[in-house]
Each structure stands twice: as C-alpha cells, then as structure tokens.
C-alpha cells in the first residue's frame, strides 16, 4: 500500500480477493486476518485504494450486524456481516466484502471513518516477499458455524486435518460445536 495512504492513519485494511482474506494492520503490523466472501465473477469486488466513509451498527438483513461503507464511487460497496455464514470464503456477493458477524463485530470498533482500504486481486500484486513476511507463522481464529466440519475448515484454509487438530489440541474431529473458536495455524 502506498505510504501516502497510510501515513496519517495508524491502521489500514487490505483485502486479497484471490485468497478471500481481509487483513487488518496496526502500525504496519498484521493484527488479524479474517476469511471473507467477495464478489462473484458477474459482480466483482472493485479493486483499488479506498477508505471507510460510513459505519452502521445493526443494518439488518443480509448485511448482518455491522456495515462499513467504502468510498467506491460506482456503487454502494462495503465491508459487512452476513445472515448467510456459509457464504464466507466464496465468490458470492454483488461486490461487497462479507465477514462472519462475530469477525466484523471484532473489527468494527478498531476501524475509524477514513481508515484506508486496499482491495487487490491477489498474490501477484503484492510480490512473493510481502506475502511471506505477512503470513509466515501467522495464525487466524475461526468460529465454527452450524454444519461445518473440521475437514471442510482445513480444506478452506489450505491446511491438513492433522494441522488443525494439533493446533487446537483436539483428539476427536467429530466433537466440535457451533460457536467454538479454533486456531488456524500459519
């Protein structure tokens, strides 16, 4: 992200459309990485450098529990929760960036009006060195949703079932429950 966009802000957000991950930074350090759902091929999420222009608590319906509007001129785009948690991780929206409600609720108080948001198409734009520096040994938290299995979660994050089991000290992969927080190893 160009220095001019982050110079006056202590935090910023980067959205990688290829990996469907939103990364929240504070003072150029990764604070948290979240899985997201992004625009489908017919209604893609616009790439570019934007900012947060609006914040709404409980916008309702398909927007979930929080809405953070983006400064994208050609439409009404935002980062928001969802009433369809199974859509997270896919190319599913009309261009918005969907998050699990508990994730957007965690991020929301840290984001201010004016916070820079960089949306990019994927790894090639960042460069391999940046990817390695930003993701090496990083962990992500995941909240298990109704109907999810550890096998599906492992596949979604590109991990083996054993990596998930070991990181969470789980002995039986069939004994999980909705709302349970698990660690996805870096």
From the spread of the alpha carbons, the general shape counts as globular
Sheet having the most strands: 8 strands, mixed
Secondary structural class: alpha/beta
User: How much is the radius of gyration in Å?
Assistant: 16 Å
Class of the largest domain in CATH?
Answer: Mainly Beta
Which parts are unreliable, with pLDDT below 50 for 5 consecutive residues or more? 1-7, 124-137
CATH architecture of the largest domain: Beta Barrel
Q: What topology, given as strand order, has the largest sheet? A: 3-2-1-10-5-6-7-9
Q: Write out the CATH superfamily name of the largest domain.
A: L,D-transpeptidase catalytic domain-like
Count of strand segments: 12
- Tally of individual domains: 2
How would you characterize the overall build of this protein?
The protein is an alpha/beta fold and 186 residues long. The chain folds into two domains: 3-130, L,D-transpeptidase catalytic domain-like (Beta Barrel), CATH 2.40.440; 140-184, LysM domain (Membrane-bound Lytic Murein Transglycosylase D, Chain A, Roll). 20% of the residues lie in helices and 31% in strands. It is built from six helices and twelve strands. The chain has helices at residues 3-6, 101-107, 123-126, 128-135, 150-156, 161-168, and strands at residues 11-16, 21-26, 29-35, 38-39, 48-57, 66-70, 78-80, 91-93, 97-98, 116-120, 140-143, 181-184. Strands 3-2-1-10-5-6-7-9 form an eight-stranded mixed β-sheet. A two-stranded parallel ribbon has the order 4-8. The protein has a two-stranded antiparallel ribbon with strand order 11-12. Helix 5 packs across helix 6. Residues 1-7 and 124-137 have low confidence and may be disordered.
């Amino acid at each position: 992200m160009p220095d001019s966009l982050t110079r006056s802000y202590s935090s910023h957000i980067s959205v990688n459309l290829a990996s469907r991950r939103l990364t929240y930074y504070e003072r150029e350090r990764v604070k948290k990485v979240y899985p997201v759902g992004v625009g489908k091929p017919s209604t893609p999420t616009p790439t570019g450098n934007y900012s947060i222009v609006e914040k709404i608590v409980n916008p309702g319906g398909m927007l979930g529990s929080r809405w953070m509007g983006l400064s994208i001129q050609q439409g009404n785009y935002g980062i928001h929760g969802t009433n369809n948690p199974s859509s997270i991780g896919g190319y599913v929206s009309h261009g918005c960036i969907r998050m699990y409600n508990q994730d957007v609720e965690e991020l929301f108080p840290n984001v201010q009006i004016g916070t820079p948001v960089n949306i990019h198409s994927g790894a090639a734009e960042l460069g391999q060195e940046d990817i390695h520096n930003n993701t090496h040994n990083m962990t992500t938290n995941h909240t298990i949703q109704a109907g999810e299995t550890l096998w599906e979660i492992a596949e979604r994050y590109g991990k083996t079932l054993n990596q998930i089991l070991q990181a969470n000290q789980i002995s039986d992969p069939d004994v999980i429950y909705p709302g349970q927080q698990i660690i996805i190893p870096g």
